[in-house]
Every structure is written in C-alpha cells, then in structure tokens.
Amino acid sequence: MTRSGVRTTVKVRVKTDVITTRKRKRLEQITGRDSRIIKQYLKAIYHNEEQLATTKKGKKKVNKAKLDHLTLTTYKKNKLPNRHTARHDLKKNFPRCSQNELQECRDNAVAIYHSQQAKNSAPAKDPQLKKIPRIQLSHAKRFILTCSPSNSIARWWVGIRDSLDTTKNKTHIHEKLWLPLACSPYHEYKLNQVKLRALEVLYYPKKKEWWIHFILLNVPEKYSSSRPPAVLGIDLGINKRAVSALLTPKGTINRHEIRFWSDKTRKKLLKETEQKIAKLQKIIAKTSLSVSKKNSLLQQLKSLRKRKRTEHKLTDHTYVNRLVKYILSVGKRYDLYVVVGFPIHIRKNHFRGNFHPRSRKNVQKWNYRRVVELLKFKLSLQGWEEHKILAIGESWTSSCCSRCESYHTIRPNQPTFICHTCGYNLNADLNGAKNIAKRLIKYVLQPKYNSIKDQVSGKFFPLSSFRVFPVLSQWLQTKQSHLLTPGAGVSA
Ligand SMILES: [Zn+2]
Predict the structure, then answer these.
(1) Whole-model pTM?
(2) Could you report the per-residue pLDDT of 86-97, keeping only the tens digit for each?
(3) Could you list which residues have their CB under 5 Å from ion ligand 1?
(4) 440 and 350 share a domain?
(5) 419 alpha carbon to ligand 1 midpoint, in Å?
(6) Tens digits of per-residue pLDDT, 100-152?
(7) Taken in order 436, 442, 447, 448, is the CA torsion positive or negative?
(8) CA 9, CA 6: separation in Å to the nearest integer?
(9) What's the domain count of the chain?
(10) Full domain range(s) for residue 99
C-alpha cells in the first residue's frame, strides 16, 4: 500500500421507488446527455487524432488544452463576442451543460481513448446502445453526501448538482438533485471511513435500477506518534464534580494523575442563591401578602432564578476550562484519547417511585450534556481531533469493580465503593472513571461493531481512526488478561 492510498468503489442503490417521477426523468436526462457529450468528445478526438495526440514512450496521450480549444468557445456577451470559434462547439450543442460538467465529460472521454489505445482496440462499433457515465469529482462541491438519522425515507442522501438548471423567468437556478440511498451498515462504515473522491451515476437496464458508484480513496495512515498512547477516563458527577483517571501504556492507572474537578467558590455562590430562592418561595406561599408586595417578591424571585441559571452555566464553564487546560498538558506527554462517561437513560430510569426523591431531583437538575458539549467545543477550539474526545455510555461503570470486574459490590454511601470479591475500597466516582477509560480499550480490542458511536454528536467513528489500536494491542498483550477478563487486577 502506498501513501497515496488505495482506490475502492462502493456501490449503493438509489431508492428509486420513493423518488418522484420528475427526479427520475432528470436522472435519465442527465445521464443520457452526458453519454452523448462523451461520445461527441470521442468523435472529436478520433477526428483530430494527429493534432491532439502526442506519443510518449510508445503511448498516445491527448493534450487536454488543445482539445478544449477545439471544443469550447469562450463566449462573452458584451465585451468580446465570440473570441474564437470552435470546430466542434459543444457549448452550442449542449447549452444547458455547464463548463465544469463538459470538462468532466472531457476527462472521461480522454480516459476512454487512452484505455482503447492501450488495448489497441478500435472505437466501439455501435456506441448508440450504451450509456457512458460521467465521473463527478468531490471537490468544488459537485456533490454532497449527508446522513440524516431522523429522516424516515432514508438515512443517507446524496445531493448532486442538477446540471440541467431550471430556467424560470430567464434566470438559471442551480438546484441539487437529492437522492435517497439504500445504505447497509457496510456502506455506512465504508463511507464514514475514507475520503470520498468521486461518484458516477449508473442505470442498470435489466434491473431497472439506479445505482451510485462512490470512488473512495483509502489513505492508510501509520501510527507515527512519538508519544505513548494513553486514555483519560472522565466520570461526571451530579454535584458539579468530575473525576479523571489516566490509563497509561503500562496498562495501569497512574496514581499521580487522578484529579477531582470542581469549583468550590462558584458552588458556594450557587448554593447561596438556591437557599435564597427557597426562602422567598416559602414567604410567598405562606403569609397573606398585599398584591403589590407579592408582585415585588415575585419579581425578585424571577431575577434570582435567572441568576441561578447563569451561575449554573458559569460553574460548568470554570471547571471545564481547568479540565481542558489539564487535558492539553497531558496531551503533550501522551497520544491522548479522552473518554467521557455519558449517562444515556438516566432521566428515563429515575421515575417516580424509583430511587430517593432527592436523587431524582438532582438528576433532573443535572445538565451533563452541556458539560460534555462544552468540553468538546473548547477542545476543538484548541485543535483537538474529533475522535479523540468521545462520549460513551456509562451504564454499569459505577457498580462494576475496576480491579476485578466483579458486580458483587456495594456503595454504603454516595462517595464510597467497596468490592466484596477482592475487597477493593475506593472513591466511587474514581472507580467509574477507571471503568470508563477501560471501556474504550475494550470497544477497540473486542469490537462488536465496526465503529464507536459518540453519544453526544451521534457520529460514528470507525475503529480504523483509532490508529493507536495496533500499539494498544501490543502493549496490552501482557496486560490484556488484567483488563479484559475477571480475576486479575489493575493496580491503582
Ligand atoms: Zn473487585
């Protein structure tokens, strides 16, 4: 494999049964017209072969600039009428086809000519029968591929610039022809994994189906970091606190890199505001007040609540800022991957009658999504790569022992965690942070799927983007049993 990459083609069917007849007609028109243009180009090449083709190392090569000179006119309305006339004027024959598309057709025709020359074959005898697809390149936004998970018709859509511009009131409208794709998980994985280079739209007359062939450039990247890989697990606490634990290349948690993140002064301010609000609410509810007095108190309450909201936000900001600073400093020493435990169904699970009322209330107040989004945003501003900060599900990480993976554990109170199997006793949030860091390694080493989902953005990151994987498996080979099977432990 070369550094420049490997070209592969992924073929995806268009959901033709759900698109409108107008779209279908457009597709037919565009592809039909494209093949006609390519054929005309081929005719022009063969007609002027002596003028266009030069022989290099026994191979004939077409000069594209000369071909353009023969086929395209630079026609400008006012300044220079007909700067030159072309022998095979394609713009005249296909006035609704843009310059870009004509040149894409030209490239196709030249490629076909070259291949025919290489095979020493004559031009096809009956070119009327076959449709020749045009290759559309991905640069200059010739097409867009998007994923819309909430769409009921299709998850993946491709928007091709509609080359037959609609003409309304003598003005051209550049539309996009949006086509729904029938993507399987394999296609999704492939399309996510690599760089899109080009596409062609094809019609299979026997099946009566439209297909899109994506031409992908797979750039295999070697793991080249001089720093050792490491995973930082972060467990978010309800009470405006986060714990981080660093899983180092030795396969152990670094004792000196355990951090608790919170902002005590801000938390104190927040608590005071909350107390004031509670006090005011009591006064308003109990005593019989005059209307004017009550109104002024309600006004006060309103402003206090506003202050509480901003204080909540500021508290998050301050401790996330510190966390970002720390992550960047650790990132200088290690090739760092950050994983945040994201409680997915926590609101759903804390229903009435379940759990303690106070814990239910805390969960409803807890804005974990904002914290994770802030962290992601602030790291992205510092140029942190997207797949290096992931939010993954944290279910069961708080009740699993991080040393022996036993679930035979208890939490006598909120901060303490005790394992009955191995007698491990530590802070419960720290235990969670360790488990979260290990979970990422498990996802990579014992993959159930081809990609890892980020719970906040909903994006899928293919396992190949974790270039650390081969290195991780190397240094975990001796430690693997400690991490992946119950029994052995990871010392803290
Ligand atoms: Zn244990």
Answers:
(1) 0.53
(2) 677 777 778 777
(3) 401, 403-404, 406, 419, 421-422, 424
(4) yes
(5) 5
(6) 788 888 888 888 888 888 777 666 555 555 777 788 777 667 788 888 878 88
(7) negative
(8) 10
(9) 2
(10) 6-218
